[in-house]
Amino acid sequence: MYKMKAASLTFRDIEQAVNFNNMTVSGGNIDLQGMSRSVRVVGEIKNIDELQNIVINTSSGAQVKLRDIANVRDGFHQPENFARYNSKNVVTLNVIKKSGQNLLNAADEIKLIIADMKKNKLPSNLIVEVTGDQSRNTRNTVNELNNTIIIGFILVTIVLMFFMGLVNAIFVGFSVPLSMAIAYIVLPWIGFTMNMLVMFAFIFALGIVVDDAIVVIENTHRIHQRTKMNIASSAKFAAGEVFIPILSGTLTTLAPFFPLAFWPGVVGKFMVFIPITLIITLFASLIVAYIFNPVFAVDFMKHDDEDHPVTFTKLWKITAGIVLAGILFHLLKLPVIANLLLFIAISFFLHNMYGYKVLRKFQSRVIPAMMRRYESTLIWVLKGKRPVIVLWGMIGLLVFTLVLFNIVKPKVVFFPDNEPNTINTFIKLPIGTQIDVTDSVARIAEQRIMSVIGDNNSIVESVVTNVAFLASDNNFDNSSKSSNLAKIAVNFVEYKDRGGESTGAYMNDMRAALKDIPGAEIVVDKTKMGPPTGKPINIEISGEDLLQLAQTSERFRRFVDSLQIGGIEELKSDFAATKPEIIINLDRERANIEGISAAVVGDAIRTGQLGKEISKYRDGEDQYPIILRFEENQRKDIEQLLNLTITYRDMNSGLLRQIPLSVVAHLDYVNSYGQINRLNLKRVITISSNVLDGYNANLINAELRKALPQFTKSSAIDIRLTGEQEDQKESMLFLSKAMILALFLILFILITQFNSMSKTIIILSEVLFSLIGVLLGYMIFGMTISIIMTGMGLVALAGIVVRNGILLVEFTDVLKEQGYKTRQAIVEGGKTRITPVILTATAAILGLIPLAIGMNINFTTLLSELNPHLHFGGDNVMFFGPLSWTIIFGLSFATFVTLVLIPVMYFVIYSRNIRRLRRKSNRLAKRAAIA
């Protein structure tokens, strides 16, 4: 600074001298001896010495070298961020997947690249670790969902074996992979990628897609066994007989998913994969049921008296052949195929030795006994006034359940809670805090967190600290750097490797350990499943007057604190009112007299403080910026900033003049606003907080709404509870509309099929009464209701439960057309359709049971290592559990409604219609007699 002043030099003089002496200029071409040669002036600086020896002409005519007025050195940029891995300094490299690309493939390729670089390019003592790998969770989720599909498929097939035999069960079971294969073909056409929601939709569809196949195969088997038709005729007749009920049943099942496909908002974009995948898969099940299953039946179905187990000699030969093939694959070191063949050999042998007899005994004794018991139950229920008593009893149970639900009031959440895979600690210091200070606070917090989780914790994968960069609590902010922010991420191992230990328990301990760090806002949060939503407690205070808005927001924050509402972690405001600044107030009149402007002063201060790139230094293929600025001790000394000499050329006299900054300006130390947010053109300040474990966000927000009228504020200020509450309200409104629209669609389908309002009401009553099972299930087991997942389950349940009701009512009508009396038609229809009703309901329930309880078997390791890695629980069951249990509870109770209450309602409505017709006939007869 002082040498520049003595030489009467400005920053622009130095910039021009360096820039003009560090360039290569093309001079065109010149023709010599028949050759055209290009002319180039090479003037680039080759080393630091050349840069130091650049000569600068001063206004006085003297010449000085750059080294006489400046220190030229090859240095490094000042650190803008810090990163640590398990308390060791590291360089972090975040890799972000492109939208629409395969995360698993990208992660695998990255790991291969790292392995190759460690082997061939990187120094041997350089440690490269991969942590916080999101593909691990995605891969684990996909594997668990795949295994759940297999478990559900096995359970469904086993149940079908008992009712329909092994061969028929395999026919029906094949409808699952066939339907999914068709969906796999279609999904890429509509831009769907494989994700956990698509996988869940397949699990959801697992027990539903077999319904059509069950009805077709069971009807074919029944007709083939009870008539003298050949198998081809039986298959044609059976498929034709149930064509309409299957079609309408599938359409009613699909009806609730059509509104869900138009789910708006962020939540809708997240959840839309489920309804669309289900729609495609269920349409595919119709193709399989109408085309593939009859073809299978024609080729393989036999009469029971023709279906005998293989002979003992043939059994041993086949088993031995499969075992030998398995041994061969073992020798070829293909253990998965080898163990699979051995498993098939054991299953084949045991089935033909013992299993066949068990199935035959079940089909010849248990099923007929079940039908006889059901028949006697229906005969007893349909006598006298019992139908009316049963109907009113069910209505009374519904009313009782609703009243009890309002008394018990189970916990309600927006999205299901989950055990965190990562716990993030966000540290926020006042704006302007130097990065070294932020890092020192982060180190203190890091030490306290390490004391909470302990050394060598088996469930902790890593602790990663980021200061300034990648420290924002915004998941989509991957580029900004803020010196006052830090983040400490504790990454845990996969759920299956935790030995059942809860990770959520660490959150409260971390909050307690970090609460007394002065001057820092600290938030401990976890990664959540589901779409990005606002904070569970989010209050927006909006208005036009910024000062009044800031004062009101602070008063409201203190007001909420005074309420002492349990569960609020700590209310934080996004309004930064304490950004420290040094304001240089320019005396405009004096400056104009001296002939200088604000631009001249600003350019001098910006160059001296921030620095300015004046040229580039080339070293081979690399380029480095040449930065011009004051020495560090001068940049940090405010007194020297005031004594900064502004060197300029007087435009009147043409002379170079110098004047200290203090002559034309003075400094003010102020605090300004760090940022001003707007929403719908209004200034807004947001106050938010997380909810502590064990507390419910909806209950806390209810208390806030109740207390809000007690807070005095100006009429120009508006206070709203938004964030997650706003998303929740929007989703509840949409699900309510979707439910109503679904019921209208089902109503339309049923009226079209039956041309009867009374029969439509009978079937639709299943939807209402199935609510009893759902509410009782949640209350009995003390489960938490999720607005999104439980709500979606209720909407989906509406379409599923009416399916069996259609089968029962439609076949009863067919029997009445064949001459059966009403009571006899009801009993015979129920007796005939009890098998498909129980099978379809059981299949749907068993398809969801593995996901509902979190049962997971790793079939890959089971076959390769004979280790199933069996475990229960996990992220999937926490997220999808409420939806699964909603279907299970509702469908279980709806099956009873289908088998008992629908026949009762059918008979009650029929009897009522008969009495009404008789009364009408008697009135007409009396009028005729009088006339």
Strand content: 5-15%
Specify the overall morphology.
elongated
Q: How do the strands line up in the largest sheet?
A: 6-5-9-10-8-11
Q: Compute the average pLDDT.
A: 81
What structural class should be given to the helix and strand makeup? alpha+beta
> What's the N-to-C terminus distance?
125 Å
Count of DSSP H/I helices = 31
Over all CA atoms, what is the radius of gyration? Answer: 39 Å
What's the story with the biggest beta sheet?
A: 6 strands, antiparallel
Q: Uncertain runs with pLDDT below 50, 5 residues or more?
A: none
Percent range of helical residues: 55-70%
Q: Please count the beta strands (DSSP E, at least 2 residues each).
A: 23
In a few lines, what is going on in this structure?
It contains 31 helices and 23 strands. Strand 1 and strand 2 (35-42) form a beta hairpin.
Write up this protein.
There is one protein chain. This protein is α+β, with helices and mostly antiparallel strands. The chain is built from 31 helices and 23 strands. β20 and β21 (682-689) form a beta hairpin.
